[in-house]
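User: Hey, my collaborator sent me this sequence without any context and asked if I could get a structure. I don't really work with proteins. Can you help?
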Amino acid sequence: MLLGRDHAAELARFWNLERDECEYFIGLVDLSRASSRHLRGLIKDQLQRLKNQRKVVSQKILGAEQVTDLKSEATYYSTWYWSAIHLLVEIPEFQTQNAIARRLSLPIEIVQNALIQLETMGLVKRSEDRWIPGKKNIHLPEDSVMREMNHMHWRLRALQDVQSKNPASFHYTSVFSVSRGDLEKLHSMMTEFMMQSRKLIVPSPAEELCCLSCDFFSV
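Assistant: No problem. I've predicted the 3D structure and written it out in structure-token form, which is a compact way to encode the shape of the chain:
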């Protein structure tokens, strides 16, 4: 007996699937029951759209906000140290201008100016002689004009770290050939890893400032 949509929905609820996973599973059930070529084609198109949406990591990051306006967004993502300073103040030992400047090897004037502007964006707050976090869970949308700049700045920082030969760092590059089917599987694995990493990172106590970069593409 073929599985019906009602039973599929109950199974999805029992398995505690996310909304898009639920829709995909029910779509697979519909595909197995479809008898006409036209209907099967429509369902396959719908399933492909769901797969494409799943690949967009920004749609899976719940609770993340954007920087307040386009001018602030352009400033925040114009170079690497804005986000570094923003997140570094979560760590108690780096909540003063001098401590931040030493950690990031930046002139104190740059740190002072950045903190003042981050305060106007609502991303840090002044508390007597210290700086503490404001909003911290922000995310740059996939369609932002600053997306390429943000990736480029942090990858340049990663290259600097490679050159420093820091034994605590992890850098890995692999070029390989693979089947198209396995390419899809690798993409899904990486997307799932990114989402699982967010679940670990968001509640984690602030003790170290880190950068996670992941590049995976067809050449």
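In plain terms: The first helix runs from residue 5 to 14. You can pass these tokens on to your collaborator as they are.
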